[in-house]
Backbone:
């Protein structure tokens, strides 16, 4: 038994029409269950409940046991002063507000029908052996229901990604261009170097990128030096030595902080080496005018693809690392990599910026991501094995959100599909 079942019963009006009483035998009539609160504080806000003939308006708190009220120290928390009803599975102790007044309690252990409990247990019983709990039923869900839930999940994922953007904006005094650079360098670092690049980028004043962008050699030396790629003491490569000398000058000019650590190469394909990625990023900024504005104004994939049609500098055509010649090839950004940039960086920052400017571009961004090819990973493969095809990047992103934040955490009753299944399999 988990509290989410109590939440489900309450918010889905599963108790409507039943003769309910408090633990002290006062009648209870639920007028309005209120709004589920996903954050700190009581579980349901703005509920309306009639207790013993008296109508009360306020909040509702839920626990498995009444004594959890004290285990969670609600008796000393003013956020719970307006709780009008305590809904529990099992009543084991009387509960009082901070002012000493007793809170009416509704115990559900003897109220919930067995068919609902059985359906709930069946939904969760195969957690370890199955990909997801409802995999046997997934193909039976109405396509309209699934599509609408995936759209909501995608927006939810955008909102999750917005947290980092707002954090960076706060740290940079709303420097949107600087935040874009930080997000891009994190994405150019991929899984291996993304966190290292992000942490280091937070220490770099973006004004230095602005000041060096019109000089490709200076910009590349800043990126290679600041992100730890010019620390080879015995490298005699002419290009390397030129960048290192330039960086030493710029370090003094801009008072750049020393880099502790360096990016990794192990486990990366050569095309993803940090040397190649930083050179590509350098050329992206060196060759773009009004880069941030162009991205925010772009409405089509074609425009975005054209903006990211860049390559590493000429030195890297026959190198992947300093001083080691390789077979010649043009190191352009691949379409698949640009797609990832659009999905993970460009659309999230456009989403936040549209809110900042007071425009709602959610529908346009949904249309944009729907045109991008789906991602391939073990989670999308898992959905495919249970008969759920993924059509595009919107659905792959939504399914990542579904699996990571609902399925793998057994939050079935916070999921539209899980609640639909439980409603379908119960009869009250």
Residues:
């Amino acid at each position: 038994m988990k509290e989410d079942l109590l939440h489900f019963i309450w918010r889905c009006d599963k108790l409507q029409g039943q003769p309910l009483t408090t633990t002290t035998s006062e009648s209870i009539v639920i007028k309005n269950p209120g709004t589920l609160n996903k954050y700190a504080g009581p579980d349901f806000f703005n509920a309306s409940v009639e207790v013993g003939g008296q109508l009360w308006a306020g909040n509702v708190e839920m626990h498995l046991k009444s004594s959890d009220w004290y285990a969670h120290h609600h008796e000393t928390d003013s956020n719970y002063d307006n709780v009008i009803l305590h809904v529990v599975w099992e009543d084991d102790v009387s509960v009082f507000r901070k002012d000493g007044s007793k809170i009416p309690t509704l115990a559900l252990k003897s109220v919930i029908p067995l068919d609902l409990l059985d359906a709930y247990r069946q939904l969760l019983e195969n957690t370890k052996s199955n990909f997801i709990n409802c995999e046997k039923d997934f193909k039976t869900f109405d396509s309209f229901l699934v599509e609408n839930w995936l759209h909501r999940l995608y927006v939810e994922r955008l909102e999750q990604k917005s947290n980092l953007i707002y954090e960076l904006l706060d740290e940079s005094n709303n420097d949107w261009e600087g935040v874009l650079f930080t997000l891009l360098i994190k994405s150019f670092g991929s899984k291996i170097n993304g966190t290292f690049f992000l942490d280091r980028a937070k220490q770099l004043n973006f004004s230095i990128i602005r000041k060096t962008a019109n000089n490709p050699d200076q910009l590349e030396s800043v990126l290679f030096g600041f992100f730890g790629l010019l620390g080879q003491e015995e490298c005699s490569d002419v290009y390397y030595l030129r960048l290192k000398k330039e960086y030493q000058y710029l370090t003094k000019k801009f008072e750049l902080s020393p880099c502790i650590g360096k990016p990794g190469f192990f486990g990366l394909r050569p095309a993803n080496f940090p040397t190649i990625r930083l050179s590509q990023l350098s050329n992206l900024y060196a060759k773009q005018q009004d880069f941030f504005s162009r991205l925010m104004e772009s409405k089509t994939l074609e425009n975005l693809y054209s903006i990211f049609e860049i390559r590493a500098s000429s030195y890297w055509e026959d190198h992947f690392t300093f001083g080691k010649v390789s077979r010649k090839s043009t190191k352009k950004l691949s379409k698949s990599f640009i797609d990832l940039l659009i999905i993970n960086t460009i659309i999230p920052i456009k989403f936040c910026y549209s809110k900042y400017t007071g425009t709602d571009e959610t529908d346009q961004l949904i249309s944009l991501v729907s045109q991008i090819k789906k991602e391939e990973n073990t989670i999308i493969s898992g959905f495919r094995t249970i008969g759920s095809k993924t059509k595009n990047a919107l659905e792959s992103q939504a399914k990542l959100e579904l699996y990571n934040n609902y399925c793998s955490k057994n939050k079935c009753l916070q999921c539209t599909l899980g609640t639909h299944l439980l409603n379908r399999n119960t009869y009250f």
Observations:
- Residues 3-112 form one domain.
- Residues 7 and 150 are 22 Å apart (CA to CA).
- The two ends are 19 Å apart (CA to CA).
- The chain has a mean pLDDT of 92.
